[in-house]
Every structure is written in C-alpha cells, then in structure tokens.
Write a structure and sequence with these properties.
Number of strands: 4
Strand order of the largest sheet: 2-3-1-4
Number of helices: 2
Shape: elongated
Length: 98
Amino acid sequence: MFIGALEFDLLLGDVRSLKQKRSIVRPLVAELRKRFEVAVAEAGHLDLHRRALLGVAAVAADGEHVRDVLDECERFVAGRPELELLSAHRRLLGPEDD
C-alpha cells in the first residue's frame, strides 16, 4: 500500500471576507474529491481571507498511480484562475517506510 500526501499553499484573488474565501475553497475541495477520488481538507490559514492551505491524500496499491493522481491534482489547482499556487509539498509513503 502506498499513501501520498500533497499540501497546497494558496493565495486567493480579490477576497475580502471569510465568506468569500469559502465560496472559492469549498467548490475547489469538492471538485478535487469528485474528479480525482482523493481526500481533501482545508488544513491551515483558517483565519486569513486571502490564504488557504489544502491537504490532499491518496491511497493505492501502486506508488506510480499515487504519484500520477497527485500530479493531476497539482496541475488542476495550478490552472485555476481565481488563485495562485504559492507552493506544493508532497510526501509518498510505501511498504518499506516506517
């Protein structure tokens, strides 16, 4: 079993309230879940209007499949015009990891 984790640090566009932030983040989280069948959560910058930290996780029997899914998630998020992807950090755990 392989587990992949991906963390996105995002800068949102012209957002002036937490309500506006939610109107961008919630659909993004839902689309990632639906399109890529991954677990997604807003995991940081909860009180900042223009920043969001999203965590994405994928599990599969094949490490290459996990990498491919995380690559697709990153391309999807990077291509969103309403936000800027500041950084993406990834971790892959496999059977030989403790």
